[in-house]
Amino acid sequence: MTDLAKHVQLATDKCDYERTHSFLLAYIDKEGESEEALNSLISLQVKFKKSRLAAKFLLALCCLIPENKNYVNKLLSLCHQENYWLEAVELFSTKIAGNSADGNNYFNLAYYQKLAGLYSQAIDNYQTAIEKKAGNIEEIYLNLAVLFGDHLQDYNNAKSCLVSALEHKENYVPALFNLAGIFEEQGDKIDAEKLYKKIINIDGNHSLAIARLLFLSSENDDISELIKQAKNLAQSNYSYVDEKIVLYYSLGKVYDQLKKYELAFHYYQLANNQEKLINQSYCEKEQELLVDQNIEHFSEKWLNKLSEGSFSAPIFICGMFRSGSTLIEQILAAHPEVTAGGENEFFSQKVKSLLSPYPLSLHNIELNDIEKWRGEYQEKIKLMFPNAKLITDKRPDNIHYLGLIKTVFPDAKIVFTTRDIRDNSLSLYFQQLSKEFNYANDINQIIHHSQQQKKLMTHWKKLFPKDIIEVSYDELVDSPKPSIAKLLKFLKLDWHNDCLEFHRVKNNVKTVSLWQVRQPLYKASSGRWKNYKEKI
Q: What is the mean pLDDT of residues 63-67?
């Protein structure tokens, strides 16, 4: 063991982090970076659970010894574990500086830029990867399509990229599936079904295409063969767990549609139980802590310190998932002054990549940071919707970030959607959400999450009472005109009859309820819980 290693070992055994850390930094300052010193620093950070610093020194080690793939893999593993996408971006930026001819480095850089929310740069580097003839060109076009469609809402370019992918590789199923998804989002059910059927002709066991056809079906369609295929695949030992989950959800939807509620709940239960096995468990105490820390951190004093000036701001729509947020956005999008902005990841991305742990890390935020984020948000919106007057930002979980949002946009208006908790709970239980919303797999946990949201919203209402309106889904479907009129008045928008004809809006809808919002208001979803009252 070297003298350096002995010194570090002795200090770490005594749990003296500060002394060891300072010693190693001083050593590097004097002797220069070395593999041994950097490895010692990394081990120290890992031991004391300082993952951000571990990533920093791993990055330095990768730059020092770029040919060592083990160090690269360790860094990327940590980046994926902790969502440290900017460190991964820096890694591949360094690799390109050392070898600008390798198209695969541009592919990897673009991949991590996308995860970091740097969408324009990611597009540029994917295009450079194509020019430099990186491998799997069809995959690059697929990734470009996802960037254009999911993140920039540029569906013409998304379609064009998918067509290019299919030109490079005929019958490339991922491109066909994504193209079908765009048709669905645009309300083109016929073309979506054609592509899903084409996928099944190519791959008879394509679980996702079978599930999508079941989701698209109506009660009068003959789907007996599809149901049989779905059941066989769901029971097969060769199907992946995530495929089985989607199939269970689709079978639940079909039997609910056929009013076979016992059977429907059986399949929904199978889906949720499978998700519980693979998802991280929902922690009630962690959620309560997040809410309490939001309440403690965000005060009038905080807002007055950093919220300066008057700026054009979006309409933020939030609340529980499946509580009517998409419906509200579609109603507003029917107004000539409003453009539907969809689910903007901006604030959730900022929190994950820069502000962990949230909101405690905000203690170090300065006015310059707030101004920078405001500019970035406005630049993104201008890029996506250059002609828009007023934009909606519909992301239900933004309720946790309203303190930050109101700091960046002091004049922002908030629409908080609510719904009968019994219907809301069932609707969540019956839909597959992202893994981060793991409370949705248990009705009791859904209720707990809802209670915590109400507690947090009570705080937000006290902080900015004139800027929040609560819209009840049940009241909206029961008496649409007065509910919509009240909402428009709150937003200082004139009444417009098109808001009652929202289902005619020609836009892309990215939500599990995308077909519901393309129909007139209906009351079938209110009181739906009565069909399952014995289960809940």
A: 92
